[in-house]
Amino acid sequence: MTEAAILGFGIVGSGVAELLDRNADRIRERVPGEIHIKYILDLREFPDSPYGDRIVHDFDRILEDPEIRIICETMGGKEPAYQFTKRALEKGISVCTSNKELVAAYGPELIAAAREHHCSYLFEASVGGGIPLIRPLENCLAQDRIESVVGILNGTTNYILTKMERFGSDFHAALKEAQEKGYAEQNPEADVEGHDTGRKIAILTSLAAGRTFAYEDVYCEGITAVTQEDFAAARAAGCVVRLLGVSCFEGDGRPMVLTAPFAVPLSSPLAMVNDVFNGVLIRGNMVGDVMFYGQGAGRYPTASAVVSDVLELALNEGRWIPVRWENGEKTEPAPIGERRGVFLVRTAAEDRERAAALFGEGMQELSAGQDELVFLTGELSEAEFADRAAGLPGLRSRIRVLR
Ligand SMILES: NC(=O)c1ccc[n+]([C@@H]2O[C@H](COP(=O)([O-])OP(=O)(O)OC[C@H]3O[C@@H](n4cnc5c(N)ncnc54)[C@H](OP(=O)(O)O)[C@@H]3O)[C@@H](O)[C@H]2O)c1
What average pLDDT does the chain have? Predict the structure, then answer.
């Protein structure tokens, strides 16, 4: 029997306990012997829950029980999750987590602590919810050089953008609906401003590079300024609008990492990722494009990913499971101004001659009404685009086009 504990009996933590029970027979086929949840740490009591008798409020009770071999941290936030995780690893207890905030901030330090104390720190559920992503990247794609990672990594914003696209709602109406359905938090800032996607693309970039890419270095734009007119312009270009986390490794090895709304061509598999679903396209130098798709959040999908880590930890007790993410110098980002790409532009109709002069032969006019001109630029760097766009007094929006 492997004794385990859960920290935080919320949406994910309660799903982990339930999944281990409901699928116990299936799990036994993989890991002989039972995986038993001995303690659940939470602030509240849960008198009506079948797990209510396992609730404790003092972390030291878990830490001081020599039978505990695995901890699932599903509390969220940096503190006290960081202190609890570190103390557990220092005692040789393996930890798995769904907490992307903690992984983005302290991932390499906690991986190194696990290595030093002959246990493991795993975080499959921290990116892409239920989608197997981190382990395939670490194991199945270990032999490839990762050239790019492009993902729809936040279900809330994807739901909002999909609603805006299908039903013509404006951003605020779509956000309200997402909140009513429980897909968006009452304070949606981390989602709609792109910070959640930023944390996840920073984690994936760090794993692809093998060194920390700090999430503070992700260039970040959210979706609050996206309008119906942007959707119409994207349609004219044969695209849909999606919030992407994008990470490309430049020739000199520096990652170019950004989170922003993109016009995604209908021919891209990412254009088919709708509602709360997530999709991630990874390009390896040998394997080519590999697509991962599934539910990026929710009780059971996320619990499924946490429990996949639990099984891995149970099978590797007393060993460090390697994660290629060195706790050393940060990877410097390539400056955003150097990024090259095509831009979808909306500007006032009076700017037509100026636009033609500024953007030259590469410019492709898509539609020109009495009021508005919509066009695609040729390939430009971000800095070149900003210089030229400054010459358009009627500029309304620009969206990067995914290549
Ligand atoms: N929900 C999802 O679909 C999803 C998907 C992927 C990743 N995640 C991540 O998984 C983590 C957990 O998310 P969640 O949605 O399950 O959150 P949640 O429902 O709020 O659950 C967190 C639980 O931890 C408890 N808790 C908080 N601080 C504690 C402390 N100091 N000591 C003991 N218990 C404490 C909370 O108690 P109170 O309620 O009393 O504060 C709550 O019961 C987060 O990092 C989140 O980003 C969630």
Answer: 96
